[in-house]
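Could you help me review a protein record that somebody else here produced? What it holds is a sequence and that sequence's fold in token form. I need someone to confirm that the token line plausibly describes how this chain folds. Take the sequence as given and treat only the tokens as open to question. This is what I was given:
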Amino acid sequence: MLANFLIGLREGLEAALVVGILIAYVVKIGRRDVLPRIWSGVALAVVLSLGLGFVLTYGAYGLSFQAQEFIGGILSIVAAGFVTWMIFWMLRAARGLSTELRAEVDSHLSGAGWGLVLVAFLAVGREGIETALFIWAAVTASGSTTLPLVGAALGLVSATVLGYLIYRGELTINLTKFFTYTGVFLIVVAGGVLAYGVHDLQEAGFLPGLHTLAFDVSAVIPPDSWHGTLLKGVFNFSPATTVLEAIAWLAYVVPVMTLFARAVRTSGSKRNPAPSTSIPLTEGAR
């Protein structure tokens, strides 16, 4: 539930910041007439995300067990890839996001501004697709539907409230620290999703070594215990982990965490050496 809450919070806040920047800018330049275009793009992005979630949930019904496991494994690996890209992209783009979006708005403001539908759709749709795919992978891995969805929903609601408060200028958040801390946590989570995808491919017979275990701590951490369920739900930890799963987890988490730490240091060295300050959205839109 915690992992899904953070996914919903992070992706939802990214989307809220994007929408807030778009709205603040068109209001500032006196083009309130194009606001319905922005909201139309947001609505289409939400529909796309929900549609993807529906297809992922019900599209595999009727397939054989091996086919379901193969599709689940591939999509889990894709989800881990999406989250990894999102982590590094937001770390790099957070400070220049406002300028980039304003340039996009300027290039689509001619006439009735219908191009803003596409701008909003692409900006928000990217976050929605990543969220739907990753939450589906987490639901599949945990075997539970309710808690992951509740966690994601709470994260999205929290992100919406935070985004509104930031837009109103009533709240400031140090976005650099927020995306850094959540990035570290999500790298570990994505490593678990990747390992689970490998396990699915082993179940499907696509990869070998299903019964070759790296360790089995089921006696200490029973899968149905509260701590086993917690570790499974947050980190996709399996008490009985195959050698290939362990290799995949280490081969992902160690280099990605190293690259992320290096990117954070590089990003910090390029900023003013003075302590970083909170970044209100309204300042970025001025």
